[in-house]
Amino acid sequence: MDAEIKASAPGLGWRNWLRLGSMREAGLIAIMLALCIAMTFASPHFLTWGNFRAMLMSFSIEGIVVVGMTILLIVGGIDLSVGSVVCFSMVVSGALFLMGLDPWTASLIGIGASALVGATMGFFVTVIGLNHFITSLAAMVIVRGLCLVITKGTPLSLFTLPPGFKAIGQGSFGNVPYVIVIFVVVVAIFDFLLRRATAFRKVFYTGSNEKAAQFSGIKTKQVKFWVTVLCSTLAGFAGVIYMSRFGAATPTFGAGMELNIIAAAVIGGASLNGGSGTIFGAILGMALLSVVTSSLILLDVSVYWQDMIKGCILLAAVSIDHFLHRRKS
Amino acid sequence: MTAAAILEIRDISKSFGAIKALTEVDFTLQRGEIHALCGENGAGKSTLMNIIAGIVQPDDGTIRLEGRDVTIASPSVAQRLGIGLVHQEIALCQDATVAENILMAAINNRRAPLMSFRRLYADAQKIMDLLAPIPVETPVADLSISNQQLVEIAKALTLECRVLMLDEPTAALTETEAQRLFAIVRDLKARGISIVYISHRMAEIFSLCDRVTVFRDGRYVATDFIASVTPKEVVRKMVGREITQLYPQKLSPERRTGRPVLSVGNLSYREGPDGISFTLGAGEILGIGGLIGAGRSEMVQTVCGLRPKVSGSVELNGKPVSIRTYSDAVRAGLVYLSEDRKASGLFLDLSVASNISALDLRKLTTPLGLLDRRAEAKQASDLVERHGVRMGGIETQVSTLSGGNQQKVAIARLLSVGPKVVILDEPTRGVDVGAKVEIHRLLRDLAEQGVGVIVISSELPELIGLSDRVLVIREGAIVGELGADELTEEAIMLLASGVRQQRSNARHVQNVA
């Protein structure tokens, strides 16, 4: 491998690297295309705007959460509480709206409350010194409990939400739902920032080798804290969009979502050891899971089988990655 | 004298909790000199370096840089002042490019919100070119260890670097790579950079440095011109007592019985050469030399069943033994100490006693399948006493011990099974002089008790000082054998580098790949 890199023209090294990095993404696209072509023959309903719209819708909102999770994985963290936080944001905003607050303000408070959850986790991780896994596991349970307390266990019915607010989740530009537009904008912004922004380079350095980053003067604890907050905030943002889309806030919503999110990011190339990952890859991972789900539904495969198949895909993706990495070193 | 000083340290003290790491130490670095800083592990060298590099803050004392009092509050302040530190262990972000690693501190201080990769690469290449033509767009993970070491140096060398501190830079380098590094260090000196050089290796210090300062137990001992001291005097100052003999007395020729404890015949492993054969006599210390990557570890690991072997036979005390896995080897009385003590040698989080018993738990297991903790403690304290591991007690966590004592624990573990043959891979790497002498003496004692000892070492003086006989390995094969009276650095290097090929003994050298 070493020799190979030296053999290529000097100065082209980084392109080489990009190629290596995007091999993963190219692979995902290839798999997805193959799957789509196969499905086009297998089901007449697959290659329709309706089905694609449904697929896009289904992963758009989760996709916003994936963005935050990917950045957190890059810094070497993980957040098991995102499903609970999505729900928390919904429930807090919904409850405040029912108490008479206008839905926009209520939503801002909901997102703020989510950020606060992130800040609390960040505190335990960076100041107390617990790890992300345990901290977010506790937060997952605590925040879920809070949702049940706030709603007394019953779904909040929010059909009185004003049409202007409902439009976020339900309206569209002609044929393109707002939700998809929001998703694309969020992804584009963070993908750009992660590639180019100085602040986000520090996220990579911290995740890749915290000590080296510290020796360069990077305040790695601050970096970890803010990334933790960012992940929860994006989950809160997603929660508000869900509320607008469903016109309801269910205290059990989003249970198990975190696994899907983490799976998507990891399939897309984020490393659980930190230091690597891309937003684009994670979104492709999400899209692949979504295409698979959609295919299984169209093929009339039972719901019970679906989870098993998705789990196998995750295992396969991680195994291939492991194999490629071993070959590399 | 002070007029030419670039860096003056006065009365610096530093405590970590109850432990006093530095007590009122002084240190003066002259402009354009290479100044060695010596001391055993725990003498406070690294703490002083970390203070100068802004990583830790002193409790007391002053630092003067070019005659002005300075406070070095953080690594980025140090870098702005032109002070660079190369850490002992490579601490690079493996996923990031060489350029990003070199200029990480600058990136951290950047005001502009967006990265400018083009400028970053150009700036980094300028620094990297001072050392070696490594393309800066390469990710660090794709570089060899020695090139990573050079990246570490480049990282410390900002364009305005005036003081460069190197903390054991040759620990992970091969002989040739180390020579290249010395040339670079001399070149930096010629450019007017003042260098602090930390090393345990006297040969390096005496060929490279102008002056030497010795610390002991967190205190300043002395500063001398290299020309006016001898290595022996420096070592004496480091350990605070006379070390009469660096290496233990070798076996006298008359006492070599020739009875082989271990004979390996026609051994081969995958991607290795065919037909490796050698014998190890009772009471003998057999050194194995060669460049890093020559296949020394692979060979002995195959003997011990840590690597699958394709063919070959192993005899212990004349009886053939079948070794397929490492536990077969242990049962037969053949044990191996890995070169990487931290990664594959010790359980750092566990106690001394648990570490020692790990190799053969069955011996300490009661019929009910439970661990006999009393027997474990007894075994540990017996072995510890016999091998002089100084520490709090057998319940001490291994990670709190010094490198030398950790190594002694690792060796005690091997001895817990009463081995016939002990194979040690780089047994004194990262170990201070005092502990090194003790480990050497321990190995000699073992040999005298009739245990066969094989030592792999990249440090030529150690190989020569310790071994009764040395096998030199190149590209996996045994290319030469040197007896005690033929051992010189030159003889070993000529064989190891392939300049000379010896086929003196057809029994030992059968097939050179």
From TrEMBL, chain A:
Transmembrane intervals: 26-46, 52-75, 82-101, 107-130, 137-156, 176-194, 225-243, 279-298
Organism of provenance: Mesorhizobium temperatum
Subcellular location: Cell membrane
Record's bilayer topology term: Multi-pass membrane protein
Source organism phylogeny: Bacteria, Pseudomonadati, Pseudomonadota, Alphaproteobacteria, Hyphomicrobiales
One Pfam family linked to the record: BPD_transp_2
InterPro entries found in the cross-reference section: ABC_transp_permease
Stated name of the protein: ABC transporter permease
Keywords: Cell membrane, Membrane, Transmembrane, Transmembrane helix
GO molecular function terms attached to this record: transmembrane transporter activity
CDD domains referenced in this protein's UniProt entry, alphabetically: TM_PBP1_transp_AraH_like
GO terms under cellular component: plasma membrane
From TrEMBL, chain B:
Gene3D superfamilies, per database record: P-loop containing nucleotide triphosphate hydrolases
Keyword terms, alphabetized: ATP-binding, Cell membrane, Membrane, Nucleotide-binding, Repeat, Sugar transport, Translocase, Transport
Cell location: Cell membrane
Main location: membrane
Lipid bilayer topology: Peripheral membrane protein
GO cellular component labels: plasma membrane
Family, per entry: Belongs to the ABC transporter superfamily.
Protein name listed in UniProt: D-xylose ABC transporter ATP-binding protein
Organism: Mesorhizobium temperatum
Pfam families xref list: ABC_tran (PF00005)
GO molecular function: ATP binding; ATP hydrolysis activity
Top-level lineage group: Bacteria
Segments forming domain ABC transporter: 7-242, 246-500
Database matches in InterPro entries: AAA+_ATPase, ABC_carbohydrate_import_ATPase, ABC_transporter-like_ATP-bd, ABC_transporter-like_CS, P-loop_NTPase
